[in-house]
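Action item from last week, closing it out:
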Amino acid sequence: MSILDRFTLTDHVAIVTGAGRGLGAATAVALAQAGADVVISARSADQLEEVAGRVRDAGRRALAIPADLSDTDAAAALAQAAVDEFGRLDTVVNNVGGAMPKEFLKTNVAALEDAFRFNVSTAHALTRAALPHLLTGDGQKSVVTISSMLGRSAGRGYVAYGTAKAALAHWTRLTAADLAPRIRVNGIFVGSIMTSALDVVAELPELREQLESQTPLGRIGEPDDIAAAVLYLASPAGAYLTGKMLEVDGGIQQPNLDLGFPDLGSTV
């Protein structure tokens, strides 16, 4: 086997959540190009069908399942759907998540709990449902979680989102300990990536310049930067990694994006 062969997933089956666009769509296509059949899920059926077409263009099979993945039962159901359609399951990519930035005084308990449910509970529900299938067959299986640089560093306005993403990162480490050695569990601290979540940055040159100047590599990332890291973690190339969080963020250490939120000390 050549070293490049270790980056292939020939005839594997993967689930990618939040796959209608952005990081999830790029990841689904990357896994297909590496040889995997892919179950993709998100809210928008139209977006999923476009991504499914790109998977099929790569020569692999796609199953598109529109669902609201904040419903943990809907997320869990993806595992059985993958096995029913393709007969096996090898990789779960827990990509769905998010929360809008909001200043602390406007972040109530419900907002915090909603962020935790969408970013952590969904991943837990799907991974638990997938477990019996991941333990079937030969070889290592893998779970990959998509966290954020705000899960490892502070940024004003992200108390709900950052707290949830930090919890997801530690969930990754703890789950890796529980599921070793048969199932590897790793994640990614994602930096600033040009997806719809950064539309406001793309439209405001001053915000884009802030991010670029704070990033040592001097640019905002592309979805394929993350998709390539997911492929590494999911494939045999990453066979000796578990419980690890890769920082795919252009080298940024402390994001300091000015969203116009007031200094709390000046308002109370």
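Closing note: The mean pLDDT is 91.
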